[in-house]
Amino acid sequence: MSVSLVKPPLNAAVFGEGPHWEVATQSLLYVDMTDKAIHRWNAVTGIDEVVKLDIDGRPSLVIPSQSGGYVVTHGTTVSHLEWSSGTLTTLGTLDGVESEIKVTFNDGKCDSRGRLWAGTFPADVKDIMNITPNQGYLVSVARGSVQKQADKITLSNGMAWSADERTLYFIDSIPREILAFDFDVNTGKLSNRRVAVAFPPDSRETLGMPDGMTIDTDGKLWVACVMVGKVACFDPETGKMLRTIQFPVKGITSCCFGGENMDEMYVTSAFREQFGDETGGATPPGSVFRVTGLGVRGRPDYVYQDTH
């Protein structure tokens, strides 16, 4: 196994998140939350294109749209992005969703029917370790309609579906849990909420806090462990950790599979003072990493379908 930098330090993000492998162009998409930018790094040409967004809230995800362009969440809004012009067109908002506190979009993905699923982040939080519990939720977005699908979540993060799409895995970062839901792909409804993986209470110094997540073709979950510079692999059937990958920066935020054979892992990172990283180090926080030789591969992530 080998861990290497994808991009030169000059192009490091401030807060890289939400990686998505675009199969059609062999490109890695991801957002820079702090810089309010969308990156598209082409693995064939090595060129990193960047679109700066003129928005109030922070971008949290970017996913290709089947009809062209991309879907981006920012603040309380989900929009269509026309890449060449940078034009954003609103598709839906969180404004009509009942909530006890002000929230914004956080991490998310699409299911095979093209629905967007995304969780929430408290809008006015100053310290993520002191978030009021159970005030967040998970929504689905289809044809501009935003529907609450699960609540009593503190800090929504990574998600992944089992190969048969009967199970949705979803991270609640603050209680350090990977939840599992029974998932009906036809109706887009969730049921039978349970904890698939619980991070041990005594593992904060070694496993940090779960952030973004992806799944391999064997059904194992790969979780970015922020604050400790790791990606950890778990068996959701047993809840056991199987292996870890160590990185040279602590702020590891998310991961996805990509490459021509979907056997490479791409990992985003971020800089925050509380992560404990040094900006003057040999590897700057905010770098994007490629992991090869893992011996596993992933499935292509689904794209947004506005006709669903």
From TrEMBL:
<keyword id="KW-0106">Calcium</keyword>
<dbReference type="InterPro" id="IPR011042">
    <property type="entry name" value="6-blade_b-propeller_TolB-like"/>
</dbReference>
<dbReference type="GO" id="GO:0030234">
    <property type="term" value="F:enzyme regulator activity"/>
</dbReference>
<feature type="binding site">
    <location>
        <position position="124"/>
    </location>
    <ligand>
        <name>substrate</name>
    </ligand>
</feature>
<feature type="active site" description="Proton donor/acceptor">
    <location>
        <position position="211"/>
    </location>
</feature>
<dbReference type="GO" id="GO:0004341">
    <property type="term" value="F:gluconolactonase activity"/>
</dbReference>
<feature type="binding site">
    <location>
        <position position="157"/>
    </location>
    <ligand>
        <name>a divalent metal cation</name>
    </ligand>
</feature>
<dbReference type="Pfam" id="PF08450">
    <property type="entry name" value="SGL"/>
</dbReference>
<dbReference type="InterPro" id="IPR013658">
    <property type="entry name" value="SGL"/>
</dbReference>
<feature type="domain" description="SMP-30/Gluconolactonase/LRE-like region">
    <location>
        <begin position="15"/>
        <end position="270"/>
    </location>
</feature>
<protein>
    <recommendedName>
        <fullName>Regucalcin</fullName>
        <ecNumber>3.1.1.17</ecNumber>
    </recommendedName>
</protein>
<keyword id="KW-0479">Metal-binding</keyword>
<comment type="similarity">
    <text>Belongs to the SMP-30/CGR1 family.</text>
</comment>
<dbReference type="GO" id="GO:0005509">
    <property type="term" value="F:calcium ion binding"/>
</dbReference>
<dbReference type="InterPro" id="IPR005511">
    <property type="entry name" value="SMP-30"/>
</dbReference>
<keyword id="KW-0378">Hydrolase</keyword>
<dbReference type="GO" id="GO:0019853">
    <property type="term" value="P:L-ascorbic acid biosynthetic process"/>
</dbReference>
<keyword id="KW-0862">Zinc</keyword>
<dbReference type="GO" id="GO:0005737">
    <property type="term" value="C:cytoplasm"/>
</dbReference>
<feature type="binding site">
    <location>
        <position position="17"/>
    </location>
    <ligand>
        <name>a divalent metal cation</name>
    </ligand>
</feature>
<keyword id="KW-0963">Cytoplasm</keyword>
<dbReference type="InterPro" id="IPR008367">
    <property type="entry name" value="Regucalcin"/>
</dbReference>
<feature type="binding site">
    <location>
        <position position="211"/>
    </location>
    <ligand>
        <name>a divalent metal cation</name>
    </ligand>
</feature>
<feature type="binding site">
    <location>
        <position position="106"/>
    </location>
    <ligand>
        <name>substrate</name>
    </ligand>
</feature>
